[in-house]
Every structure is written in C-alpha cells, then in structure tokens.
C-alpha cells in the first residue's frame, strides 16, 4: 500500500535522512520512535509530499511519485496533479492542532470533501456529523476551535483527516502538545482506528501506547533506521545500545 525505499533528505549541508525505508501493508500500524532531531517528522512529511526527498523512491498503491530536479540540488514532484492526488490519499494529523480558526468544527470537517473532492454538500455534512459522533464531538459541531480544549481540537483534526477517506493516516506526535489529562481521550480515538484495521504511521513518544497498538516499530537515529521489528522485540529486547538507552529515558 505504501512503500518508501532509501529515502534521503538534505537541507543545505545537513543530511537529515540518510536512507530510510518502510513498507506499510493494509491494516499495518507502524510506530516511528527516536530522539528529537532524528528525522521522524521529515520522513513523515516526505511520505505525503510536504517535503520532497533528495533521494529514494516512494510508491503509493504501486504508483511511484515522479520527481524532477528543482534547480537547487534537490528534487520536486514532476507533476502537481500527482502530488495532490497522493497527498489526498495520506491524511496527516500534526502535533499542534491545526483546525482552521475561522470555521466551525463541522465546517472544518467538510471543507476538503466539498472543495477538494467535490462531494455533494449535504452528503459531506451527513458524513461529517457521523465522524464527529465517532470522535465524541457531535454536540460541538457548530463550535469554533478557540472554544474547544486541546484534546477536543485534536479529535476534531482526526475527524477532519478521516473525512477525505484516506488510504492511510499519518500522525506526527498527536498528543505531544496536550496537557497530560487530555492525552488519553486522543489515544483512545487512535486506538479505535487501529482496531478497525486502518493503516497508520504514528510518530509518538507514548511508548506503552506504541507497544500496544503497532505491529511494527522503527527506531530512528541520525537519519537512519537503527532498529526495527515487532513491538515485543523492539521494546522488550532491544539490540542496539542506543535504543536501550532511549527506552530507558522513559522510565
Ligand atoms: P524529529 O521529528 O525526529 O524531531 P525532524 O525531522 O523534525 O526530527 O528534524 C530532523 C533534523 O532536520 C533537525 O536537525 C532539524 O533541525 C532539521 N530540519 C527539519 N526541517 C528542516 C528545514 N525545513 N530546514 C532545515 N533543517 C530542517
Ligand atoms: Mg518531529
């Protein structure tokens, strides 16, 4: 479903990704863990074309993203249309709640279906309300983001991501910016998505959650996958000393 092979990314002289590969099959929940600056966000952003890898290949449902030189030693997508299509298949939820502040929650959720995908407005509203119900925010449908807690905003962002019926969901530290008492309600929604078999790639510092919900864990260090495997192996029996030390810092 989603395949990244040897992804490299440099910013100027800084080599942030040095050949990261990942394969996500349907229903996989893959956690990316690693210290700050190890390249987790950059990798996730490369997957959905928010950044363009300097090297390596990305295939989504078998379709390779075509790149061309951007004239500054990097690459950019050869086709804007393809980039938009790929991006729409992979919905991203960010660390900071990024609902549009000038729209109500429901308007946020139906925006992309109506204006990008061309879904009939009435149908988008029905579906949007169903999604808000799922994340426990039906009664907040007409509220503006500023009047929602961080946890509610993040659940709203998840509903909005689901509304485009993505092939896979990408989460970049979705609970890192939340007050501790609000983390649980967001993890509960993500867990429910995992249980219904959604394909997800999750950058997280919630180690016990990652261990619980994922079927594959990648530990990044210095722009490389230092260790990867099933959660029981990676968390229970780390082979790399760096990984052991990293996991130790959470106790
Ligand atoms: P992580 O998410 O694992 O903390 P990031 O992928 O955000 O790591 O960052 C990896 C490295 O890349 C960091 O050193 C960061 O400063 C650098 N970096 C990320 N984005 C940019 C950018 N747009 N320009 C220059 N450097 C960047
Ligand atoms: Mg990051």
Automatic annotation (TrEMBL):
Residues 2-247 form the ABC transporter domain. Pfam families: ABC_tran. InterPro entries: AAA+_ATPase, ABC_ATPase_HisP-typ, ABC_transporter-like_ATP-bd, MetN_ABC_transporter-like, P-loop_NTPase. Its main location: membrane. It is found in: Cell membrane. Keywords: ATP-binding, Cell membrane, Membrane, Nucleotide-binding, Plasmid, Transport. PROSITE patterns: ABC_TRANSPORTER_2 (PS50893). The keyword Thylakoid does not apply. It is a peripheral membrane protein. It comes from the Bacteria. One of its GO terms (molecular function) is ATP binding. Belongs to the ABC transporter superfamily. This is ATP-binding cassette domain-containing protein.
């Amino acid at each position: 479903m989603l395949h990244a092979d040897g992804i490299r990314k440099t910013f100027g002289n800084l080599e942030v990704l040095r050949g990261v590969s990942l394969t996500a099959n349907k229903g996989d929940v893959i956690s990316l863990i690693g210290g700050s600056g190890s390249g987790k966000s950059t990798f996730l952003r490369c997957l959905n074309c928010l950044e363009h890898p300097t090297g390596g290949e990305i295939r989504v449902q078998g379709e390779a993203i075509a790149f061309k030189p951007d004239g500054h030693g990097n690459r950019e997508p050869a086709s804007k249309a393809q980039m938009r299509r790929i991006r729409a298949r992979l919905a991203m939820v960010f660390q900071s709640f990024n609902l549009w502040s000038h729209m109500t929650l429901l308007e946020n959720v139906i925006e992309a279906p109506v204006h990008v995908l061309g879904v009939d407005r009435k149908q988008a509203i029905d579906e949007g309300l169903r999604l808000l119900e799922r994340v426990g925010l039906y009664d907040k449908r007409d509220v503006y983001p500023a009047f929602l807690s961080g946890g509610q905003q993040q659940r709203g962002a998840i509903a909005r991501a689901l509304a485009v019926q993505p092939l896979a969901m990408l989460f970049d530290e979705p609970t890192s910016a939340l007050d501790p008492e609000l983390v649980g309600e967001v993890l509960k929604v993500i867990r429910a998505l995992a249980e219904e078999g959604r394909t997800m790639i999750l950058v997280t510092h919630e180690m016990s959650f990652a261990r619980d919900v994922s079927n594959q864990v990648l530990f990044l260090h210095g722009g490389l996958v230092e260790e990867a495997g099933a959660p029981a192996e990676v968390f229970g029996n780390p082979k790399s000393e760096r990984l052991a030390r990293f996991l130790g810092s959470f106790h």
